[in-house]
Amino acid sequence: xxxxxxxxxxxxxxxxxxxxxxxxxxxxxxxxxxxxxxxxxxxxxxxxxxxxxxxxxxxxxxxxxxxxxxxxxxxxxxxxxxxxxxxxxxxxxxxxxxxxxxxxxxxxxxxxxx
Length: 114
Prior knowledge:
CATH class: Mainly Beta
Number of strands: 7
Largest sheet: 7 strands, antiparallel
Structural class: alpha+beta
């Protein structure tokens, strides 16, 4: 169904406190092992068009491309699992292998995983 590194729109409401909400792009972050077995939830990273410079390792900037209409920041500190029904199954774009590896690196720093 989904593949790691692909970007879709998802409905993230309702939100609580400082969680990211509303309809927004999300990055599929979980392993393809779970994606291929049609696991009922998916680990994602929300994406924001509110850009903040010099925010390494909390954000990773990607440029608009394909159906992603604006330059955006992947929020590496907002990891969450969502039900697959929240995801709109029309792919917007996908990251390159280099970009996926950089996001992995930044999330590893945020989680203090070596």
